[in-house]
Amino acid sequence: MKIAVLPGDGIGTEIVAEAVRVLNVLDLPFEMEEAKVGGAAYEAHGHPLPDSTLNLAKASDAILFGAVGDWKYDTLDRPLRPEQAILGLRKHLGLFANFRPAICYEELVGASSLKPELIAGLDILIIRELTGDIYFGQPRGRRIATDGHFPGAEEAFDTMRYSRPEIERIAHVAFQAARKRSKKVTSVDKANVLETFQFWKDVVTEVHKAYPDVELEHMYVDNAAMQLVKAPKKFDVLFTGNMFGDILSDEASMLTGSIGMLPSASLNAKGQGLYEPSHGSAPDIAGKGVANPLATILSAAMMLRFSLQQPEAADRIESAVKSVLAAGYRTPDIWSEGTQKVGTREMGDAVVAAI
Amino acid sequence: MKIAVLPGDGIGTEIVAEAVRVLNVLDLPFEMEEAKVGGAAYEAHGHPLPDSTLNLAKASDAILFGAVGDWKYDTLDRPLRPEQAILGLRKHLGLFANFRPAICYEELVGASSLKPELIAGLDILIIRELTGDIYFGQPRGRRIATDGHFPGAEEAFDTMRYSRPEIERIAHVAFQAARKRSKKVTSVDKANVLETFQFWKDVVTEVHKAYPDVELEHMYVDNAAMQLVKAPKKFDVLFTGNMFGDILSDEASMLTGSIGMLPSASLNAKGQGLYEPSHGSAPDIAGKGVANPLATILSAAMMLRFSLQQPEAADRIESAVKSVLAAGYRTPDIWSEGTQKVGTREMGDAVVAAI
Ligand SMILES: CC(C)[C@H](C(=O)O)[C@@H](O)C(=O)O
Ligand SMILES: CC(C)[C@H](C(=O)O)[C@@H](O)C(=O)O
User: Fold this and answer.
1) Which of A77, A280, A165, A137 is nearest to B152 (CA)?
2) CA–CA separation, A292 vs A298, rounded Å?
3) Which domain does A331 fall in, by range?
4) Was A173 annotated as part of a binding site?
5) Beta bridge partners of residue A240, listed in sequence order
6) What is the pLDDT of residue A71?
7) Which of B160, B141, B124 is nearest to B243 (CA)?
8) DSSP-assigned beta bridge partners for residue A266
9) Which residue of B143, B166, B202, B243 is the best one to mutate when testing the A interface, meaning the one whose CB has the most A CBs within 10 A?
10) Substitution site in B87, B95, B131 for ligand 2 pocket (most atoms within 8 Å of beta carbon)
11) Which residues are noted in the entry as substrate-binding (chains A, B) (predicted)?
12) Is B74 a residue of the active site?
């Protein structure tokens, strides 16, 4: 078994280093190989996703990913910007199924913007389609408009699209995930406006016939954005397309108040997966040793469970994280009066010790 | 001066009736004419936006709109569904500038999901472009895919697009609105993924040169969805395209906890406007006399200010609403211990009395 380790930019290197220490202490039969990605790869090789990195990723069973991006790359041509690395990995490895749990840890209820009673015990699984939709649809570009409000004017455009098999496979993933949980799926669309999402709704309804034991609810994306704020605990599995999933999964993780705790997994049809924290590269705190490594450590646990068939090792990591939280260790992002403020390294130490 | 009164479906008729009473008591020189729209128009005339209604709207200086929609129309062909009426009015009248304030009323701080300190004093103005983007972009439809992940499969697609003049005019609206407020604009895009929104960002940056006194910040839509939850008071004018605006304006209004209080205005280049509450038709409580009419009454105030050049009358309505809140009147949606629960009609009575 082989793991590609891609720390990336900003706090990526610091947090991935702790996850690697945790993996090493488990003494499992796999090999890790590190490569550059994002801005770091651009600096070293002139491209955010060099062939060497992509080939390593393809040849691995799993990818442990940190984060990419920094404001200093904002003026680069789009194909050279750090985030193209993550889009490229999703595309070239076919990582169509993104799992983003939005969980509120008991000890961290106070960190949420929401009132404790609305958020305590929250446990939503967001499943986002990750290789289709307007993210990759062609054609796209700039041109002179030939119709619309201002024919003759310069315009830019993109294509939103979903095919039947794309919707079917992610719907199966969502219904199967729901079977292991509360058997309730909310499919989020904008069928009242978009052809793509009327089709989404139709296909999801068809696929649902094979899962009569799972309850299916359809919800418009604007309403979902509201219901997440109003009554987040009403959701169990929330599943949607790439664009809406980008927005709603970030909204949901911020609701928990502890986005620094939330892992994610992106899987392809072969079970290969990319595992990364839900938060970004946070260039403002990079190099300061204060970033929270727990989302990355928990991503490593997801990796052991989903791609490396090591569920017990995954359990060990997750229990260790719970115990360091119970013991009061907190990085600054989740710190509150009466708990012990620690840095990235000390948090990693605490998890290693707990294992 | 002429006002088209379009109550629509669900609670629409009840809440618009109260706004009309409030307008009548002001004894101003305008005429009101009522017409059916949405499901009600479909029942009566076989179309959600019959020509008679559209012509009345076109011939009026302003439209007072209730709400449209009911689950019972969900199975109709898309062009006959109630929401096509609102999309049609936006399109045919060119109502490109949507104003949606997200305000937290002092007396209603407790109704929010968010902790009081995060929400007290909140006053965001969301400006959403309303006639472009993927809502109206052509081509759209279903077809057989010729490329992508599954060539040969059935697919559905839509076109996202914005032309330079479309972006320019809404950017001017946003910067001018900011000049009357805190001179701070957040333009929300997804320039890291979409051609349309890279163009949006470029054009907004150019238009900004004419407003050196206004501060401009660019933010990705996923980040905006998070920051609204984390620190909503950091926003002042938030402006964005049609699709992102649909999602973020609903998220923001739900943050306030009192969406039943929030008006909206949709204006065209001539100053004609459609005024409607930010909430929907709420078929579950329709006909029960419990809906909150204040968002509609406040929409009528916006109408007086923006389209009918009656700013003092607008002030009178807004002061009356503040005083009924201060006096403790509450419809069920905003009721809390120690305040007086009233119905739609009594709330209208209270506002009329306060005027
Ligand atoms: C960096 C960006 C392209 C990416 C996305 O939009 O998918 C990110 O926001 C995410 O959610 O992983
Ligand atoms: C009813 C629907 C078409 C509409 C929209 O998506 O614009 C509504 O959600 C709104 O925000 O006014």
Assistant:
1) A165
2) 11
3) 1-96+262-355
4) no
5) A128, A188
6) 87
7) B160
8) A98, A274
9) B243
10) B87
11) 90, 100, 128, 222
12) no
Q: Which residue has the tokens 């404001």?
A: A71
Residue ranges in chain A modelled with pLDDT below 50: none
| β-pairing verdict for A215-220 and A184-189 | parallel
Contact indicator for A186, A200 with CB cutoff of 8 Å:
no
| Cβ–ligand 2 contact at A226 (below 6 Å) | no
Do the domain assignments include residue B70?
yes
Q: What is the pLDDT, as a whole number, of residue B308?
A: 96
| E strand or H helix that includes residue A267 | strand A263-267
A232: preceding bond cis by omega (within 30 degrees): no
Nearest CB to A195 within list B149, B157, B195: B157
Q: For residue B207, tell me if it sits in a domain.
A: yes
Asked whether the beta carbons of A99 and A308 are under 8 A apart, the reply is no
Residue B45: strand pairing partners: none
Distance A126 CA to ligand 1 centre (A): 15
Q: Are residues B128 and B244 in the same domain?
A: yes
**Which residues of B are annotated as part of the binding site for substrate?**
90, 100, 128, 222
Q: Which chain B residue shows the shortest CA-CA distance from A258?
A: B230
Contacts for B171 with CB less than 8 Å, ≥ 6 apart: B187, B203, B204, B207, B208, B239
Q: Do B156 and A157 touch (CB under 8 A)?
A: no
Report the share of chain B in percent with pLDDT over 70: 100
Residue of A190, A243, A160 whose CA lies nearest to B250: A190
Contacts (Cβ under 8 Å, ≥6 apart) of B326: B107
Report the DSSP beta bridge partners of residue B6. B65
In a domain, B265, yes or no: yes
B255-279 average pLDDT score: 95
Q: Quick one: B2 exposed, middle or buried, by C-beta within 10 A (0-12, 13-18, 19+)?
A: middle
Whole-number Å distance between alpha carbons of A65 and A82: 13
pLDDT, tens digit (0-9, with 9 covering 90-100), for B56-94: 999 999 999 999 999 899 889 989 999 999 999 999 999
**A187, A220, A255 — which closes off a domain?**
A255
Q: Which of B68, B109, B117, B134 to mutate to test the interface with A (most CBs of A within 10 A)?
A: B134
The reported pLDDT for the residue numbered B317 is: 98
User: How much distance in Å is there from the Cα of A192 to the middle of ligand 2?
Assistant: 8
Taking the alpha carbons at both ends of chain A, their separation in whole angstroms is 22
Given B199, B232, B255, which residue is the final one in a domain? B255
Count of CB atoms within 10 A of residue A150's CB? Answer: 17
Q: What is the pLDDT of residue B74?
A: 85
Pairing of strands B154-163, B141-144: antiparallel
- pLDDT in the model for residue A74: 85
Q: What is the CATH number of the domain that holds A212?
A: 3.40.718.10
Is the per-residue pLDDT at B252 higher than 90?
yes
Q: Is B78 on the interface with A (CB under 8 A)?
A: yes
d(CA A183, CA A204): 15
| pLDDT tens readout for residues A308-324 | 999 999 999 999 999 99
Per DSSP, helices labelled H in chain A are 12-25, 39-45, 51-58, 83-93, 116-119, 164-179, 195-208, 221-230, 242-255, 294-306, 311-326, 344-354
Give how many domains chain B has, as a whole number.
2
- Residue A157 and residue B165: Cβ atoms within 8 Å? no
